[in-house]
């Protein structure tokens, strides 16, 4: 990993410097976040939707706190509004340095950060974008492709956009191909030459080719055939970066490379020279190289990769190389549990024995046996499992055949083997805010004119910060600023290696919850400013409903109406009512706060709500979409207060069929605010204690409310059963709740948030109201209705997941929501193995799902595109939470217009199409902030304990690491083998089954090495700790024979 550095001398001439070794410098830890997929919109979850547009000035930490510290001499207070701003103190992660292995270096592991250096990466400039007319013309003809850029946070050289034809995602390799675009940006790409597309080697290895396949693929490809293949497979998406004639020239002169089982590489090119094989994680990997066994052996021989001898406490700087083989999701992670003899695992036919081994696993037995002694072998048992001495690998060598991309395009299943590649030629919308939290450091060559800003998010480029923006004494006291976190913004980014940035502000000490939360909000462009109350003309509390409102509203104040919400909720935007009719039918009322009464269209308050888009829910606070006087008082359906509402009232049979329904504006008075715990006690207990409940008002009693909750719960079960029988899908992914210290606001513990019948009761009736409103507004405004759709799963990712699970005997019956729901139900069990395995598989299924999105009905001509996949309904929208979601306000206005309360809809199709794009961005940002807030508090809790132990289950196996799902913590983290005390390790792959064999060094006082087998669904003990980053806390596994757990705290709740 050494690299040669060229630096300018004081005289202006260039002089060759010494080689730098990446291991001589510390490296930033790899981002290890897990993206959850929103399936149902989680109607009552606080993690809904994000805001944007903040100036952040009010969020900056006052520099006065640091002025008393002698080393700090501030120039001026910085803020995002200033063109150039100066922070006060900075932070540096012990494991963070510009030498991190990253796409911003010209070689993996190399470090060339000098401002004056002539290193190749830094001097590479981005390509010019196409003119807007060319882009519009190309998109219209289908010659260019527009999509949202997704950068892999664990392997940030890799980026993707969704292919419009539904096949494998289009791959963008390296920073150069992204051409200045960042994660989330809407980009326009052009496909590269087919000869440069990526061949998915592991899929070739595991595919059972027939003799006919070999005959079809082996013949050379002519220019005419290539033209035909391109036109047939890609249609209009055939305007590559070069002409077909150039492609043919590349094919005619290209070298065909064979990769043998022992990983040696032979080149059959004209020059006959041998080359070293590139790895999948190599940014400079030649994508024409593939591995292909002869058909008779393609399902029998194992691919084996040998890990070099590992030292104890190896620095984390090369951890990025571990994320290999991630190009195809879930492609590298499966085998069997380790309860049986590992002799069988090594020598037997693994696929046939896996499920038998699962059945024989004694889950009720000693858990320690599952995660330690039963998972390892001694030296005498491993002679045939690992290589000895010279670290050579014994393999069954077979005949190797290689194909080019052009040849593989002939195969009917070519998308399984070939991944198209492209490059960004235009950025349609810069969605990413170009702001990052990170650390300020000296340049490696101690350049006195610029400092290095290293973002925490490795998907963002490092920035050069001019000396004038740094603290006065930074260059002489850089060590002082190691403990502080700063905020910086990209000013210009023209070269691959570095962007030019300017420092915005000091955020505080790293590792502090408030500092990390502030950075999280700023990075996601969450508006935390106070509302301009003097401009909004808001009514004050107490407030009385004007008499004229009763002239046209339905007066429901004498009905038994109540709310069910979290005990700490203040923004109560929905209430319920239930009445038993003489016919035996039930009249159900869903009453939603009438926010549009206070928020007039196009008013200043409306503009403020649009700018935020949604309330943002963190662990310890809520950032509201509307002013508090509305959220908590005037709009909130507080008990014993007259409130304006929009009501959906329906008569249903005992089986949940709708007999009659209508919508109306109303006036209601809630008789009680129930918490979910109150409602659950009513459901569970026949007799309830009045002392456990709040006061019931408005002339009703506790038995009255109790009876109605029971009736609604029975009906909710009917609605739920009917929905699932109709083909709906529900993925109940676990979430954490924290217990906070009232004084310090620090976490004192956590537990999994459990969804009980009381939660589901409310959800069922909210879903019913949303679906009925969606059909109603689409019927009246088919061209401008604001709806919410959830597309079907990504075909390629879903198929890969199915194939992966099938290799261990778990078969998904189909891709429909109904089939998936039945499949997941069949996996349920009461033992720890079944629940852990179900959680992993549910996460796998969730990752195949596309995000649900708001859209304007006119933006899609085919009504089939309106469907909500998870709910399996033709129309869906959001109506029930207008206090915290702006889309609900739009829907309220549309509904009011259909009922004659207003003169038609004020919205146009073009306006709503643009609006929904913004709303989708805001929602995703809010969800990111909400999820990451939980990770910050979890990391803080682990940090307070020092170490935190538990039991996890392996959910993904890679070449140099594996992912572990920790059920009690509701999270997945990566274990890097280089951090373990291993003598060596081997990864073997058979079909889609991956096996890691870890040979541990002897424990103190012993001379025997220990073998541990890591496969899919393997139980392992884990030890979590926080080094510097609360979010990306470190996870390792202890020696399998180690019994010293005295210093490890373990969550048992």
Automatic annotation (TrEMBL):
An example Gene Ontology molecular-function term: poly(U) RNA binding
Coiled-coil stretches: none
Region (Disordered): 1-118, 299-321
Domain (RNB): residue spans on this chain: 553-901
UniProt superkingdom: Eukaryota
Ranges of biased composition (kind: Basic and acidic residues): 1-13
Keyword tags: Cytoplasm, Exonuclease, Hydrolase, Magnesium, Metal-binding, Nuclease, RNA-binding
One annotated Gene Ontology cellular component of this protein: P-body
Keyword Metal-binding annotated: yes
SMART domains: RNB
Protein localization: Cytoplasm
Record field: transmembrane: none
Primary localisation category: cytoplasm
Keyword RNA-binding: yes
Basic residues composition bias: residue spans: 301-313
Skewed-composition ranges (Polar residues): 82-118
Gene Ontology BP annotations: miRNA catabolic process; mRNA catabolic process
PROSITE patterns in the cross-refs: RIBONUCLEASE_II
Pfam family, one: Dis3l2_C_term
Residue spans of biased composition, Low complexity class: 51-69
Family named by the database record: Belongs to the RNR ribonuclease family.
Record protein name field: RNB domain-containing protein
Organism expressing this protein natively: Argulus foliaceus
């Amino acid at each position: 990993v050494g690299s040669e550095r060229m630096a300018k001398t004081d005289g202006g001439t260039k002089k060759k410097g010494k080689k730098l070794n990446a291991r001589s410098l510390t490296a930033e830890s790899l981002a290890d976040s897990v993206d959850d997929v929103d399936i149902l919109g989680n109607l009552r979850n606080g993690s809904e939707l994000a805001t944007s547009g903040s100036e952040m000035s009010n969020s900056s930490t006052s520099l006065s706190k640091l002025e008393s510290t002698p080393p700090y001499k501030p120039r001026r207070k910085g803020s995002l509004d200033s063109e150039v701003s100066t922070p006060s103190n900075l932070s540096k992660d012990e494991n963070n340095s510009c030498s991190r292995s990253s796409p911003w270096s010209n070689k993996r592991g190399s470090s060339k950060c000098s401002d004056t250096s002539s290193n190749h990466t830094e001097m590479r400039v981005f390509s010019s974008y196409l003119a807007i007319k060319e882009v519009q013309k190309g998109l219209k003809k289908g010659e260019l492709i527009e999509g949202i850029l997704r950068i892999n946070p664990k392997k940030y050289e890799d980026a993707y956009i969704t292919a419009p034809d539904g096949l494998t995602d289009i791959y963008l390799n390296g920073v150069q191909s992204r051409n200045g675009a960042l994660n989330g940006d809407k980009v326009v790409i052009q496909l590269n030459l087919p000869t440069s597309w990526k061949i998915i080697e592991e899929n070739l290895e595991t595919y059972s080719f027939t003799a006919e396949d070999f005959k079809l693929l082996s013949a050379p490809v002519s220019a005419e055939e290539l033209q035909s293949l391109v036109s047939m497979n890609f249609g209009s998406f055939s305007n590559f970066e070069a002409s077909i004639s150039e492609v043919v020239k590349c094919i005619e002169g290209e070298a065909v490379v064979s990769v043998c089982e022992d990983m040696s590489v032979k080149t059959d090119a004209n020059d006959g020279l041998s080359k070293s094989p590139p790895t999948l994680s190599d940014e400079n990997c030649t994508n024409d190289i593939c591995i292909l066994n002869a058909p008779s052996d393609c399902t029998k021989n194992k691919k084996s990769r040998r890990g070099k001898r590992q030292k104890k406490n190896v620095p984390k700087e090369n951890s990025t190389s571990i994320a290999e083989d991630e190009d195809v999701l879930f492609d590298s992670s499966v085998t069997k549990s380790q309860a049986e003899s590992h002799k069988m695992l090594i020598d037997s036919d693994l696929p046939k024995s896996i499920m038998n081994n699962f059945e024989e696993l004694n889950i009720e037995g000693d858990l320690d046996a599952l995660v330690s002694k039963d998972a390892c072998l001694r030296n005498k048992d491993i002679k045939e499992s690992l290589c000895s001495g010279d670290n050579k690998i014994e393999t069954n060598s077979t005949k190797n055949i290689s194909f080019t991309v052009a040849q593989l395009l002939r195969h009917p299943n070519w998308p399984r083997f070939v991944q198209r590649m492209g490059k960004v030629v235009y950025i349609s919308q810069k969605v990413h805010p170009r702001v990052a939290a990170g650390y300020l450091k000296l340049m490696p060559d101690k350049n006195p004119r610029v400092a290095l800003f290293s973002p925490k998010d490795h998907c963002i480029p490092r920035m050069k910060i001019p000396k004038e923006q740094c603290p006065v004494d930074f260059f002489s006291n850089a060590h002082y600023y190691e403990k502080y976190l700063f905020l910086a913004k990209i000013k210009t980014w023209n070269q691959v290696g570095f962007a030019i940035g300017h420092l915005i502000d000091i955020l505080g000490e790293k590792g502090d919850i408030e500092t990390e939360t502030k950075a999280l909000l700023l990075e996601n462009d969450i508006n935390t400013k106070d509302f301009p109350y003097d401009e909004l003309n808001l009514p004050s509390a107490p407030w009385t409903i004007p008499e004229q409102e009763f002239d046209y509203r339905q007066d429901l104040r004498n009905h038994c109406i109540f709310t069910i919400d979290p005990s700490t909720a203040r923004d109560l935007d929905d209430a319920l009512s239930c009445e038993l009719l003489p016919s035996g039918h039930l009249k159900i009322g869903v009453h939603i706060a009438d926010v549009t009464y206070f928020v007039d269209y196009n008013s200043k308050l409306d503009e403020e709500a649009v700018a935020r888009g949604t309330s943002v829910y963190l662990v310890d606070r809520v950032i509201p979409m509307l002013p508090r006087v509305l959220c908590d008082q005037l709009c909130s359906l507080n008990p014993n207060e007259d409130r304006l509402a929009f009501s959906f009232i329906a008569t249903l049979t005992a089986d949940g069929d709708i007999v009659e329904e209508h919508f109306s504006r109303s006036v209601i008075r809630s008789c009680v605010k129930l918490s979910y715990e109150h409602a659950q006690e009513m459901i569970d207990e026949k007799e309830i204690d009045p002392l456990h409940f709040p006061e019931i008002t408005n002339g009703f009693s506790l038995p009255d409310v109790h009876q109605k909750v029971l009736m609604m719960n029975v009906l909710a079960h009917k609605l739920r059963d009917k929905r699932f029988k109709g083909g709906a899908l529900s993925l109940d992914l676990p979430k954490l709740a924290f217990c906070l210290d009232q004084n310090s606001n620090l976490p004192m513990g956590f537990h999994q948030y459990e969804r009980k019948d009381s939660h589901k009761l409310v959800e069922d009736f909210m879903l019913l109201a949303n679906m009925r409103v969606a059909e109603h507004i689409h019927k009246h405004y088919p061209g401008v209705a604001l709806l919410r759709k959830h597309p079907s799963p990504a075909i390629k990712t879903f198929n890969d997941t199915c194939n992966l699970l099938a290799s261990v005997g778990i078969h998904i019956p189909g891709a429909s929501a109904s089939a998936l729901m039945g499949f997941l139900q069949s996996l349920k069990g009461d033992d720890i193995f079944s629940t852990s395995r179900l959680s992993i598989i549910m996460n796998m299924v969730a990752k195949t799902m596309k995000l649900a999105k708001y859209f304007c009905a006119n933006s899609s001509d085919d009504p089939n595109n309106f469907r909500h996949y998870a709910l399996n309904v033709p129309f869906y929208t959001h109506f029930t939470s207008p206090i915290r979601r702006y889309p609900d306000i739009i829907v309220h206005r549309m509904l009011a217009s259909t009922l004659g309360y207003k003169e038609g809809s004020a919205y146009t199709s073009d306006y709503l199409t643009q609006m929904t794009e913004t709303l989708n961005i805001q929602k995703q940002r809010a969800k990111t902030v909400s999820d990451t807030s939980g990770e910050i508090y979890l990391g803080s809790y682990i940090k307070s304990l020092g170490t935190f132990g538990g039991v996890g289950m392996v959910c993904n196996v890679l070449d140099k690491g594996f992912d572990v799902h920790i059920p009690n913590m509701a999270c997945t983290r990566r274990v890097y083998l280089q951090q373990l005390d291993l003598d060596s390790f081997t990864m073997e792959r058979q079909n889609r089954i991956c096996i890691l064999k870890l040979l541990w060094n002897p424990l103190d006082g012993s001379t025997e090495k220990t073998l541990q087998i890591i496969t899919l669904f393997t139980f392992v003990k884990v030890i979590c700790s926080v080094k510097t980053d609360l979010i990306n806390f470190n996870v390792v596994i202890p020696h399998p024979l180690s019994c010293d757990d005295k210093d490890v705290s373990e969550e048992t709740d």
